[in-house]
Amino acid sequence: MVHGVRLHELGGPDRLVWEEIPVGVPGPGDVRIKQRAAGLNYIDVYFRTGLYPLASLPAIIGMEGAGDVIALGEGVTSLSIGDRVAYAGALGGYAEERIIAADRLVKIPEGISYETAAAMMLQGMTVRYLLRETFAVTSESVILFHAAAGGVGLIACQWARALGATLIGTVSTDEKAELARKAGATHVIVTAREDFVARVREITNGRLCDVVYDSVGKDTYRGSLDCLRPRGTWVSFGNASGPVPPFELTLLKGSLFATRPSLMAYTATQAALAANAADLFAMVASGRITIPINQTYTLRDAAEAHRALEARRTTGSTVLTI
Ligand code: NDP
Questions:
Q1: Residues at CB less than 6 angstroms from ligand 1
Q2: Which of 56, 74, 75, 153 has a Cα at 20 to 30 A from 311?
Q3: For 62-73, what is each residue's pLDDT tens digit?
């Protein structure tokens, strides 16, 4: 028997229970991996609370991890026992061992640790599709990026800098502002004492932004739309403050575009997953992006990690070690 963190009922962090879990043998196309690290992501909170539905309970949440292949199911030829692998977007990550489809895994390049792989796959591939595909950011682009000192945020600051774009980040504290600036944000707005819409107007001299990346949701969507120039793009990709409520389409009257993307849709095919991961690994290998693992907890202490994430006490990425 191996251990994992299981959810028997939806609710607060205390619902996350460390216990023995069954794993089973890999079916056709699957492999069994021994995990060395799992990633913590805000989506884990959505599943825990029920904002995003789980197929059944009890459930093992967690969408990201890294480890070693220890058993192959029938027909798996792309991987061998002992391969170092990582994934993002497959529920079941809060476990010492798990079964996963072989075509959802990528091999971890030499020089990248299990911890870094577990920290970067979900947040890093998200930044890649947001900045390269959802809206093709260039050196001419002016971007507003909310939660700029978070896991996704600090990677986005670095990737935007590499593309030569102007990134305006929002954060809640001065300490977080410093981190975002160091990661490459051109301007940082501290929301505890500044009105982000007024500041965006000032910073851009009224030109406003080409694209707003909004993962905060309920508290920010209205202001985010006001930060866009005509024909700008609003990318609503998360709900840290709660889901965006239904709104009148006339709010997009400045000929705005609105999209609600997900990493799963952008990495649905094996080819798309491989291309995204390869680009991300190349950015990290070249030193243009460093994955900031600013918190580490043992998997057993996942509840504590959830408390910190929801209380906005974390910055950068958080890893659960196994
Ligand atoms: P973060 O590390 O960014 O943590 C969330 C941050 O949101 C907080 O640190 C906080 O930063 C900010 N925030 C603003 N309001 C609230 C609130 N009321 N409660 C809690 N936090 C708040 O998390 P992740 O990097 O894991 O994810 C960032 C966002 O991106 C999440 O919304 C997540 O769901 C989304 N996401 C979406 C994906 C997709 O494909 N659609 C994929 C990956 C992530 P501050 O204190 O500075 O305001």
A1: 41-43, 122-123, 126, 147, 149-153, 171-172, 176, 215-216, 219, 237-241, 261-263, 309-310, 312, 314
A2: 56
A3: 999 999 999 999
